[in-house]
Write a structure and sequence with these properties.
Blueprint (H helix, E strand, L loop, with lengths): L1 H16 L7 E2 L4 E4 L3 E3 L4 E9 L6 E8 L4 E7 L19 E7 L10 E10 L6 E9 L14 E2 L3 E3 L1 E5 L8 E4 L3 E4 L3 E9 L6 E8 L4 E8 L18 E7 L10 E10 L6 E9 L19 E3 L1 E6 L28 E3 L4 E3 L6 E5 L6 E6 L2 E2 L6 E5 L2 E5 L1 H4 L5 E9 L4 E9 L53 H37 L1
Helix pairs in contact: 1-3
Length: 519
């Protein structure tokens, strides 16, 4: 009996030493949701988004979409988020009624964002039956389409939620948020642009972005007009000229079904502003979705926004006002306009494999935007970069930045009035050592080097000194690199484990031999 007990103890000891081998998995995962009850008429087109929420981070997912092909005809599938694109081999199926959609992060890094990842556009057939037509979402089964992360773990906790299109003969008037148009204003004075709501079925929260030309307008205040729909307690005026986010929420989480004035946005009109119409663009925020939602959690994806404008006249004259670029350089013999202020919103260093975009903000009207070049070569909009209003914001996509070599690069943004904005950014390897930048003149408006990239006046790099932490993108300088510590730990583990295993094997042989003799 003692021999048996000893044998059992030895076997338990061996199993404890052996590494566990099990399929990689994770208990939590994102939720993929198809929008529900989107209203459309026969003979029209309708866009149905698929949104992601509760996302711990994934690098690929396979989705199966099923729908009634006698009601709907799928015409296109797009992925609006550059960090989570469609598989390059994606094709629309020839079998209407079913569509496979494969999302994959090209750098094989985790994307942990939220919001709309897929837009599906359907034709509603002319003879379609009226009523709710379901759009059913699931993960593909062959191969397994459950989301996986960059470590290879399958996110078994991921879920899907189906949606629908409501085909109607005469849809009700659209639920719309509208910024007032052609509001008169004069230089050097203030102007208020109201935002109104109409055809309101009742909502409890909404978030939208207001984009405007910061060379013409400077935001001064935002005021909620109805006590039942106040500003969020976290509301603050923007620190980024050209864009203001506004979030309204009923503090009792109850639906408000009123109409009329919702918000007043007051601007200062710059004393040197260009005269004429200046757009005030209204759009729902990515919050992960800013569309209005009701107390039951329904999101009104068919709600609309209508943008407005301010019509500026010369009244106030040029009284000094803003000290930035002159938006109307006049006929001064073809002189080149002054370079506008510009800066990288999150610093000018980008690390390979990070999956993050690089964003450059330029204080110049977007209506004058022309093109972008990197290292003298023009790059392509929507595939390599994105440009949008507020003043002008240029976003270099991560998948394009991955094609650039490590080191310093030059980006130049050109405008139709011959103005340019030139800035410098650096591509870093993961944990790369710091190198001094090239000998360039950084004495223009908008220094491209933030303080966290050391520019020593004596020509040396302070971040290379022992014990300084290694600077931007460099690991702390310790006695042994992290990889050496890991190797040392592995060796120590082998030193302890191998003799223990040999001892256990010898002990088992002795017990078996003695067991035979005792029979």
């Amino acid at each position: 009996m003692k021999r048996v007990a000893t044998l059992a103890i030895v076997l338990v000891f061996l199993f404890a030493l052996a590494p566990a081998v099990a399929p990689a998995s994770a208990s939590s995962g994102p939720t993929f949701t198809v929008s529900s009850n989107i209203t459309a008429m026969p003979g029209t087109t309708v866009t149905v988004p698929i949104m992601v929420t509760n996302n711990p981070g994934f690098t690929a997912a396979g989705l199966l979409v099923e729908y009634n092909s006698s009601v709907l005809e799928l015409t296109s599938v797009t992925a609006p988020i550059a960090a989570m694109p469609l598989n390059p081999e994606f094709r629309l199926t020839t079998n209407q009624g079913v569509q496979w959609i494969h999302l994959v992060q090209q750098n094989l890094t985790n994307w942990s964002g939220t919001g709309t990842v897929i837009n599906m556009t359907f034709n509603v057939r002319a003879g379609a039956a009226l009523g709710i037509s379901g759009i059913y979402l699931s993960f593909t089964t062959s191969p397994n389409g459950d989301p996986v992360n960059a470590a290879g773990d399958t996110l078994w906790g991921a879920t899907t939620a189906s949606g629908s299109v409501n085909v109607v003969a005469n849809p009700a008037a659209a639920f719309t948020f509208t910024a007032a148009s052609n509001v008169s204003a004069t230089r050097g004075n203030t102007v208020t642009v109201p935002v109104t709501v109409s055809n309101n079925p009742g909502f409890t929260s909404v978030a939208f972005d207001v984009d405007y030309n910061s060379s013409v307008l400077e935001i001064r205040s935002v005021t909620a007009r109805n006590t039942a729909m106040p500003l969020s307690s976290q509301f603050a005026l923007t620190t980024t000229p050209g864009r203001q986010r506004i979030h309204l929420i009923n503090t009792n989480l109850a639906d408000w079904g009123g109409g009329g004035a919702l918000v007043d946005i007051t601007f200062n009109v710059r004393s040197n502003a260009s005269t004429g119409v200046s757009a005030v663009t209204l759009s729902f925020a990515d919050f992960p979705f800013g569309e209005p939602a009701n107390a039951a959690g329904h999101v009104f994806m068919d709600a609309r926004t209508a943008s407005g404008s301010v019509n500026v006249s010369g009244g106030g004259g040029d009284q000094g006002g803003w000290d930035g670029w002159d938006p109307d350089p006049g006929s001064g013999g073809g002189a080149t306009p002054q370079e506008p202020n510009h800066w990288f919103t999150e610093g000018n260093a980008w690390t390979q494999g990070s999956g993050q975009n690089l964003e450059l903000f330029i204080e110049k009207g977007f209506h004058l935007f022309s093109s972008v070049s990197v290292n003298g070569d023009t790059i392509f909009r929507n595939s390599q970069y994105q440009a949008r209003a507020g003043s002008t914001i240029v976003t270099l996509f991560a998948n394009y930045l991955e094609t650039l070599s490590t080191g310093w690069h030059t980006v130049t943004v050109r405008f139709t009035d011959n103005a340019t904005a030139t800035a410098y950014f650096r591509i870093l390897e993961n944990w790369s050592s710091w190198e001094p930048p090239p000998d360039i003149d950084d004495g223009f408006i908008g220094n491209p080097y933030p303080d966290d990239l050391d520019q020593s006046t004596d020509g040396t790099d302070d971040t290379s000194k022992p014990g300084t932490g290694g600077g931007f993108g460099r690991p702390p300088q310790t006695g042994l690199p992290d990889i050496s510590l890991l190797a040392l730990a592995a060796c120590m583990s082998l030193i302890v484990t191998v003799p223990a295993c040999l001892f256990a094997v010898r002990r088992i042989r002795m017990l078996l031999k003695s067991s035979k003799h005792s029979k």
